Backbone:
């Protein structure tokens, strides 16, 4: 079977254990030497072949013992319980880097760095992402409890705004930077507190980010 064409348009939230700004975005080593992360995506419009994906949500919990590119990572995929079997299969194919050109998307690149992928969690996903406000609430009962907020100026307590502008990015071209808190349970247990988060409008296909 050849590659199936797919497209996702929506909103993306990612939080990791790095300091605000995440050195990995600049091809530097992670703040603490390892990478721990949660990911949540809302699909506003999408398809995989003839299967529509509009309105569904998915995500994952990830952990690598060193920098991501050094491999040996593990992941727990999370899929919306509202997905039909065909939709679930489509999302799992996309998130595992299938039907994608090598190096074209962060799903495909990350998939090459994982040595253990746990069974997918199929569950209710509460995920409200406001990219411009840099606010997120992300709850998967028994798996993820996370929130994202703007960075605050330490003196004035006003919201501080910074962005990533990646013309050749494989996840986004522009993302708002904030901070987050996340606790995860299950196969990968994380406790991230006041660490890096980013919020992006996602438009991606099997050949890469749509510009």
Residues:
């Amino acid at each position: 079977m050849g590659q199936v064409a797919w497209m996702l348009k929506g909103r993306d939230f990612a939080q990791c254990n790095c300091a605000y700004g995440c050195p990995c975005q600049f091809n530097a080593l992670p703040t603490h030497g390892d990478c721990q992360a949660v990911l949540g995506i809302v699909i506003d419009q999408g398809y995989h072949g003839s299967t529509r994906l509009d309105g569904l949500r998915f995500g994952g919990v990830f952990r690598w013992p060193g920098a991501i590119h050094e491999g040996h990572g593990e992941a727990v995929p999370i899929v919306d319980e509202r997905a039909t079997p065909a939709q679930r299969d489509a999302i799992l194919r996309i998130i595992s880097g299938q039907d994608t050109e090598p190096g074209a998307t962060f799903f495909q690149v990350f998939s090459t760095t994982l040595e253990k992928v746990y069974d997918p969690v199929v569950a209710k996903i509460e995920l409200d992402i406001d990219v411009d406000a840099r606010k997120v609430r992300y709850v998967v009962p028994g798996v993820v409890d996370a929130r994202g907020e703007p960075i605050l100026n330490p003196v004035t307590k006003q919201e501080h705004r910074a962005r990533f502008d990646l013309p050749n990015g494989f996840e986004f071209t522009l993302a708002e930077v904030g901070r987050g808190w996340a606790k995860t349970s299950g196969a990968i247990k994380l406790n991230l507190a006041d660490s890096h988060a980013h919020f992006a409008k996602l438009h991606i296909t099997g050949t890469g980010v749509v510009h």
